[in-house]
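Quick one, T. Sequence first:
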Amino acid sequence: MKSVEKTGRTVDEAVLSAIAELGVPRSDCRVEVLEEPSRGFLGLLGNKDARVRVTAKESRVELAKAFVAGVLERMNTEAAIEVRPRGETLNLDIVGRDMGLLIGRRGETLRALEFLTNLASSKGGGEVLRVVVDIAGYRKRRERELEEMARSLARRAIRMGANVTTEPLDARDRRIIHLALQDSAEVTTQSEGEEPFRRVVISLRDHPGPERPGS
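Structure tokens:
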């Protein structure tokens, strides 16, 4: 991290001078006031300027990548980290062999890793507001599996003429189910229950379940 020390008649003046030299937005800097300004006798003798140290924050991209790399190292896992910033979202794709342990049962470990990565990088600077972590293309495969499951459960609901309920799903997986069936003319979906046991109920449109509370 690059730091600059500057002086000025006021703290703001010193900070602005340091930021101009660093060439980064103020929101991406950490400011330390080393000395407050003071005015001497009659404002003429013994005047002392403010002195500050301004440090450019590491970017959220750098912090997120460093955190994931540290986790892989501690797990003795050899893998490459592919970084793809997209506006306010950063995609971190972990590519390697034997990634099953890092993905976990139905992506539970992956979700925990993504949560911790967002937490660890939250103080970083830059435009990135959210980090999405994927491992060996797992999320795309999971999305296809959930879409197929949604269609299969919809067919079952139509065949049985009754509501069909999924297993407990997290918010991201429930959203995939809702989107997969949102244009269906025969069934509708709603989420029910409390986390972490919230499920999606698939109902015939002629026999709707309770009012849809969202995902």
